[in-house]
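Why run this: before we spend reagent on co-expression, it is cheaper to look at a predicted model of the complex and decide which construct boundaries make sense. The entries below are exactly what would go into the expression plan.
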Amino acid sequence: MSGALFDYVLGLADDALISAQRMGWWISRAPQLEEDVAMANIGLDQLGQARNLLAYAGEVEGDGRTEDCLAYLRDERDFRNVKLVERDQRDFGVAMARLLIFSAWQAELYAALARSADPTLAAVAGKAVKEVAYHLDHARHWVVRLGDGTEESHARMQAALEAEWPWMEELFDSSTVDATLIAEGVAVDPATLRDAVLTRVEAVVGEATLEVPQVAPAVGGGRRGLHTEEMGYLLAEMQHLTRSHPEAAW
Amino acid sequence: MNDWPLWEVFVRSRRGLSHVHAGSLHAPDAEMALRNARDLYTRRQEGVSIWVVRSADIEASTPDERDSFFDPAADKIYRHPTFYDVPEGVEHL
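The model came back. C-alpha cells follow.
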C-alpha cells in the first residue's frame, strides 16, 4: 500500500519536476524578455508542486530520503514522469502546445485530487489548482495567437500540436495507478480525466483555427521508468551540480 | 518582435491605495501586456490590481515646461495646509 502510494506521488512529482526543468531552458531564449519571465514563473510554480510532492513521497517511503535525494540522486530508470514532459522543446510552438496539454491535464487532475482521501495530496492539489489555471491561460493565449496568426505561425503551431498530441495518451493510462488507491479515493483514476482534458484542449485548438491531430498514440512507459533518449541528457544537466559536489551549500 | 509597443504598468498594492507606476514592458496588445505585467511586476505579491496603458497614449509634461508649470506654485505657501494645529492623537488626517 505505501509502495503504491509512493509510486503514485512520485509520478506526479516527477511530471512537475521534469516539466519545470524544461521550462527553465527557455530563460534567455524566449521570444521576449517578458516571456522569459513568464516561462520561468510557470517553471517555478511546477517546481514548487514537485518539491511538496517529493517531500511527501520521501515521507511515505519512510527511508529518510529527502526531496533533494529524490530529485538529484535517482537514476533515469527510477523516474516516473510521463514522456510528454521530458522531451526536448526547442521550438516555442512545441513548448506552448505541450504546456496546453500538460496544464489542461494538471488542472483536471488537481481539481479531482483536491478531494482526495489523502489529506496531504488534497492540500498540495488545492494549492496548485490556481497556479495551473494561469499556466493553462498562458498556453491558450499563445496557441490561439499563433494558430490564428499568420500563415507561417498557423502552420508551425499545427505542426507543434501534431508533435505533442501522441504523448497525451500516457496521461490517461489507468494501468499505471494502483487500483486499490483509486478505490480508496486516494488517487485519481487517470482514465476519468480523459474527456474533460480533451474538451479543454480541443476547445483551444478550435479557437485557434487549428485541426485536432489525427495521430496514433506514442508508446508510453514513463511511469514504469522507461524514458526517451533525451531524458538522460536532461538528468545529466539537472543533477550535475549535486552529484559533483555532494552536500554543497550556498 | 522589436516592433511591439511599449506599455506602462500601474499596480495597486492593496485595496484603498491608488495605482502606482511600476515600470514598463513590451507586448503586442493590451491582453498580453496585462499578463506580462502580472509576471513581471507582481511576482512577490506586490499587487491586487493592475492597469496597463500604451506609453504612446500618455501625454507628458516636458522638462522645458518645468519653469512655467511648477515654479508659479513656489511662492504660494497659503496653499499648503501648514496653518492648522493638528489635534493630538489624530492619526488619519
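The two ends of chain B are 49 Å apart (CA to CA). The longest strand of chain B covers residues 6-12. Bring this page to Monday's planning discussion.
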